[in-house]
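Sequence, please.
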C-alpha cells in the first residue's frame, strides 16, 4: 500500500565551523632583493556576525598549506594583468608548522627593494603535492597557468569522507593578498582561512500517529531520500577560484554533478532490504530514538556530515523526499513523505552545517493487526 503525506517541518540548524591563517619564511636572494624575507602567519580567528566561514589553525597544522605567488608591476593591478601572469614567485609552495619557530618553508624568498615590484599571494589547505585522480583536490595550476589560480575538487563517493577544502583570504573582505610591495607591506603575509564547502547533517526518528507499536515487531526502513532540483543545488565537482568573492563567500566555477540522491550516504542500518518478506529480514532501521541518518564520522563518536559544493540560491524552495517502509510480521506498507524548505530561511552555506531533523510518521499501529 502506498501513501503520501507531508512530513513535519524539517528543522534546519546552522552550526558554526571555524577557520584561520598561517606564518612562514621563503626563497633565494637576488641583487634586487632586500634582506627582508617573505614570511607567513595565521590571523586570529574572527567570526563575522551571522557567518561562520573562518577556521582555527589546528586543522591546517596537520598538513600545512600551499601558496601560489605572482610577481607584477605597480602600475598594473592584478585584475588588469592576471591574464598574462603565472605563479613565477611561488608555485604550490608548502608552508608547514614548526612548534618552535611557527610557520616556515624552504628555500626562503625575499621582498624586492624595487618599489615597482609587486607580489600577489593566494593560499589553500590542506596541502597536496599534486592533484589526485580520485577525490579531494584533483588538479592544481601548473607553472604556465595564467590568471586566478583554480583548485579542481571532487567529493568522495562517501561524502562524509571528503577533503575539507579551505582557501586563504586577507581579512573580512574575503579577497586574497594582492599587489603588495615591500614598502607598502612591511610585515608578514597574514592569511585567514575559510571553508569552501558546505556540510549537511541529518537526524531521523519514527513517531507513531496512533497506538504505540510493538517496536520489537516492526521495522521502519528507508528506501530512498532525494533532494529536489529547485531552490538550491549541491554539487560534487567544481573548481575553486582562490580569488574568492568580496562578500566573503567562495568563488566556485565549472560546478558539475548535482546531488539528487542521498540514499548511498545513509547508515547501512537504515536501508530497506527489498528482498526481505518480514521485519526479521530488515535491519534495525529507524527507531523512536533520534539518531544520525548518515551514521558516525571517522572518529566513531560524532555524527557524520556530508561535504558538498554549495550552488546558487533561487526563490524556489528546497525539497526533501523520503520513501520508507513500515514492515511488520505480516505487512509491508510503503510511504512517501515530502517537505519544502524556503530558501529565504534555509540554505546551504559554505562554512556552515545544515542539519535536517526528520520525523517519519507511522500512521497506524503495526505488528498488532490494527
Amino acid at each position: 500500500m502506498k501513501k503520501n503525506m507531508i512530513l513535519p517541518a524539517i528543522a534546519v540548524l546552522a552550526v558554526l565551523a571555524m577557520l584561520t591563517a598561517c606564518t612562514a619564511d621563503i626563497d633565494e636572494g637576488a641583487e634586487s632583493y632586500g634582506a627582508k624575507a617573505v614570511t607567513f602567519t595565521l590571523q586570529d580567528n574572527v567570526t563575522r556576525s551571522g557567518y561562520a566561514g573562518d577556521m582555527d589553525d589546528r586543522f591546517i597544522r596537520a598538513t600545512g598549506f600551499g601558496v601560489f605567488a605572482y610577481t607584477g608591476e605597480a602600475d598594473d593591478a592584478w585584475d588588469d594583468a592576471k591574464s598574462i601572469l603565472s605563479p613565477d614567485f611561488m608555485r604550490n609552495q608548502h608552508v608547514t608548522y614548526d612548534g618552535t619557530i611557527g610557520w616556515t618553508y624552504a628555500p626562503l624568498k625575499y621582498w624586492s627593494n624595487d618599489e615597482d615590484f609587486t607580489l600577489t599571494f593566494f593560499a589553500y589547505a590542506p596541502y597536496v603535492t599534486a592533484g589526485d585522480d580520485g577525490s579531494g583536490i584533483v588538479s592544481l595550476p601548473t607553472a604556465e597557468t595564467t590568471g586566478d589560480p583554480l583548485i579542481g575538487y571532487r567529493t568522495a563517493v562517501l561524502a562524509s569522507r571528503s577533503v575539507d577544502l579551505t582557501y586563504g583570504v586577507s581579512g573580512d573582505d574575503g579577497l586574497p593578498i594582492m599587489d603588495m610591495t615591500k614598502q607598502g607591506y612591511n610585515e608578514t603575509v597574514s592569511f585567514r582561512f575559510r571553508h569552501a564547502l558546505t556540510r549537511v547533517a541529518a537526524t531521523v526518528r519514527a513517531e507513531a500517529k496512533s497506538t504505540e507499536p510493538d517496536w520489537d515487531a516492526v521495522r521502519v526502513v528507508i528506501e530512498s531520500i532525494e533532494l529536489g532540483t529547485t531552490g538550491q543545488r549541491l554539487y560534487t565537482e567544481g573548481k575553486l577560484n582562490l580569488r574568492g568573492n568580496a562578500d566573503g563567500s567562495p568563488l566556485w566555477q565549472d560546478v558539475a554533478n548535482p546531488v539528487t540522491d542521498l540514499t548511498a550516504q545513509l547508515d547501512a542500518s537504515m536501508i530497506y532490504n527489498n528482498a526481505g518478506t518480514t521485519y526479521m529480514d530488515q535491519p534495525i532501521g529507524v527507531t523512536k530514538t533520534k539518531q544520525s541518518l548518515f551514521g558516525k564520522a571517522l572518529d566513531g563518536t560524532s555524527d557524520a556530515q556530508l561535504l558538498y559544493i554549495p550552488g546558487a540560491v533561487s526563490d524556489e524552495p528546497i525539497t526533501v523526499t523520503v520513501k520508507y517502509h513500515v514492515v511488520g510480521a505480516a505487512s509491508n506498507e510503503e510511504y512517501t513523505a515530502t517537505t519544502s524548505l524556503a530558501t529565504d530561511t534555509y540554505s546551504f552555506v559554505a562554512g556552515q552545517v545544515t542539519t535536517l531533523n526528520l520525523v517519519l510518521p507511522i500512521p497506524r499501529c503495526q505488528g498488532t493487526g490494527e
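The radius of gyration is 25 Å.
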